[in-house]
Amino acid sequence: MSNHAKISDAEWVIMEQLWKNSPLTSAEIIDQLKDSTEWNPKTIHTLINRLVKKEVLGVKREGRFKQFYPLLSAEECRKRETTSFLKKIYSGSRQMFILNFIKNEKLTNTEIEELRKILNQKKDEN
Questions:
Q1: CA 31 to the chain's CA centroid
Q2: What is the annotated signal peptide range for this record (predicted)?
């Protein structure tokens, strides 16, 4: 996946199916999405083909069927999307994002403690 290739919201739905279970044929992906989306099979095929072109999905032939599998982990895609989001919305500033998040979100005591733990671990790493 090139650094400029973004995964759309619709493409992300396809990826989530494949991160849960892969490889899958397009027919299997269509079957899994029939209850949660109103997309027709042609739309799903188009999304799969876009993901292959973006080098996010790989393809292997099993007999007369193509099976699709992720080339990147969900974590790697999340990391890339986060970096892109930070650049776009916060000019790349993690600090601005974190401060904005903490100021504007209602956090439970458990979440606050988890954040403290993570920050203390980061502090110790430096």
A1: 21
A2: none
